Fold this sequence. Notes:
alpha/beta; Rossmann fold; Dehydroquinate synthase-like, alpha domain; seven-stranded mixed beta sheet; two-stranded antiparallel sheet; 13 helices; binds nicotinamide-adenine-dinucleotide; binds zinc ion
Amino acid sequence: MSEIIVRTSSKDYSIRIQNGLLEQPGRYAARLISGRRVAVISDETVAELYLSPVLKSFYQAGFKTASFAMPAGEAHKNIRTLERVYEALYAAELTRKDLVVALGGGVVGDLAGFAAATYQRGVRLLQMPTSLMAQVDSSVGGKTAIDMPFGKNMVGAFYQPQAVLIDPLALRTLPRERLADGMAEVIKYGCIKDAELFSKIEQQRADLEWMVDRSVRIKAAVVRQDEYDTGERMLLNFGHTLGHAIERATEYTQYTHGEAVAIGMRLACRLGEKLGVTPEAVRPRLTRLLKQWRLPLHVPPVELSRILAAVGADKKHLGDKLNLILLTQIGEAVIRPLTREEYEPLIAEVWTEALAETAADGRTAAAASAGGGSVQ
Ligand SMILES: NC(=O)c1ccc[n+]([C@@H]2O[C@H](COP(=O)([O-])OP(=O)(O)OC[C@H]3O[C@@H](n4cnc5c(N)ncnc54)[C@H](O)[C@@H]3O)[C@@H](O)[C@H]2O)c1
Ligand SMILES: [Zn+2]
């Protein structure tokens, strides 16, 4: 078991990481709120697997329980589902002393978190993340949001929970691709802050509970220093500038977030190499690790102009300059602000090279399937 305290301007709260925690949230909730009601928001997949033990634990701890399961998936992280959640909270007669529990992946965490932030101007929130992405990233840091037709995460709030309860055993039922998706973020933490985490994953000596613990500590420390995402927290964007651009340019249909970040991290290494910041030995190590988790390495055949447009669209929120996150070595990152005149030719060069690599890889794969060589 480990406990990490997150200090923020609005409150301090604890993140507990413990195998088997999904079966005992009731005893912790009793310490967090003075109310007697709990509404558990989940999705249909997670509800089927974990809702019963969670409700049982709250019931045994003396709470009145209610639950709502939304359909699973990003497509439902929208204002219609949010309205149904508000209705469920109203039907459960939840008051500001009571507790909303977000039981599920990042979609449930973001949506139920935003519902808690806004229902009756804010009710208590307990995060119980069940996907690796949610355990190491979305449940920590207090960002909540829903998607709008004009963009992802466009409406939301910073809203810190009363506590986060993480049960690494829940990851046993997570499909392999989803695990790999979250691993991209774990690898990212290794890259920017934790060389030991990186090398233990390389040597396959890290178990999930330990990796979750290390990752959460890094995110919690960064959030503590920069609650509202203006400085240090930018380091968490390593691999995300081009990762987001790839997601956007492929209309969020071709890659999961972690997959796009995996591609983006390799590209960020190339950018760093060109700027003389990242040593050449870094990229091969990263590549081997991403391969180990069967994460994609190559860029999709998307035209440069679409990538630059997507980078530009993302950048609007950040002001004039683009803040590139670059590695000085495994375990250490720096922020390099570049003007448009500086970053456009650089990205152009790297994207063009990466497209050539994609084409070469396609030829190797075709030769291999025709009975020729092997793909390394
Ligand atoms: N708030 C933040 O800081 C932040 C950070 C990163 C990501 N996010 C958001 O998180 C979302 C992505 O999260 P995600 O990858 O967890 O997606 P998700 O919530 O859709 O979960 C992925 C899938 O796994 C299933 N699942 C979850 N836990 C499971 C388990 N233990 N066993 C079996 N199946 C399980 C879900 O039902 C779903 O089908 C995005 O909307 C993204 O914007 C937010
Ligand atoms: Zn991410």
